[in-house]
């Protein structure tokens, strides 16, 4: 390819996998990351990056640091903007930090591109399924509808169903396409929508191809096993390995579209390497629903664990019930077709987990502490 690509947040889960793939394609990769302890623990940057430490140019810096980010942009043809704070629940009580990093950090990046960062030809931003909120549903009477957040009254009495916003009848989830109503139900979701909107508006104004990729629930080998605020596969794995009970929220039938890291990297590479006509907003998912209980049962079976899976009826405000992607636009315009099904993907993820060093035993404490933070602020029952 011969291009130079800057990956902000390049030391993260997706960033590291993407960097390795781009290197195989002959791309010169520059990684820009703040090496957040919440994600990486106290590991040194060279430990976090492993082989990438020697194969990529690495700059340690905050995405809000104008001077450092400006230096990182120099000479780069493509920017893949992955840097962001992630975590639906945490965003609801660390509002300023999430808005500052995600929204202002993206503003700093775009301001630099608009005012002197020479050579940037394309920007690809990581968005999220969180921009949709509950997404698209079908009401027997009113057809396709886009419900708002579920009410605390319903959730408190164990009624987790999504209701038609017109008649309040139970609605059935549908695959959510990119033209669906955008209704994020968390501060995190709002900031991801803000990121993608800023990128799309500014790239259009500058005459650059801009791409926003609405990743669904990304998982796979290499994801953080330390961060208690994101990634139920990692959280469940550590709890099962420690023989701890798993608290299954709601009734366990809430579902997500779990997309394997290799597929996410493929979609992102197609966006990076595309020509001038490859621009716009695309879902990146499988279009397949998997319930939280199915995830927990599969992991318990694979690890041979005896932990109890306790359906508690607990819930977090801001969580959605269902969401899965319609991938038609990504297939048509990017040529992206997911290849890895959940059974194959979870087997690969679990095999990687088993090959890692055992946790310190404090991971479950960190997860419980994250839940206590939500309870103390009235964001979880």
Kindly describe this structure.
This protein starts with a strand and ends in a 5-residue tail after the last helix. The chain is α/β, with parallel strands linked by helices and 381 residues long. It has helices at 13-24, 37-40, 45-49, 52-55, 66-73, 88-91, 95-114, 152-156, 187-206, 232-241, 261-273, 292-303, 328-334, 342-355, 363-376; strands at residues 4-8, 28-33, 57-60, 78-81, 122-128, 137-139, 143-145, 172-173, 210-215, 217-219, 246-248, 255-256, 258-260, 280-284, 290-291, 309-311. The strands form five sheets. Strands 3-2-1-4-5-9-14 form a seven-stranded parallel sheet, sandwiched between helices. A three-stranded antiparallel sheet has the order 7-6-8, with no helix packed on it. The chain has a two-stranded parallel sheet with strand order 10-13. β6 (137-139) and β7 form a beta hairpin. It has a single domain (4-136, 175-376), classed as NAD(P)-binding Rossmann-like Domain (Rossmann fold). The protein contains 15 helices and 16 strands. The longest helix has 20 residues, at 95-114. The radius of gyration is 20 Å and the shape is globular. The mean pLDDT is 94. 40% of the residues lie in helices and 16% in strands.
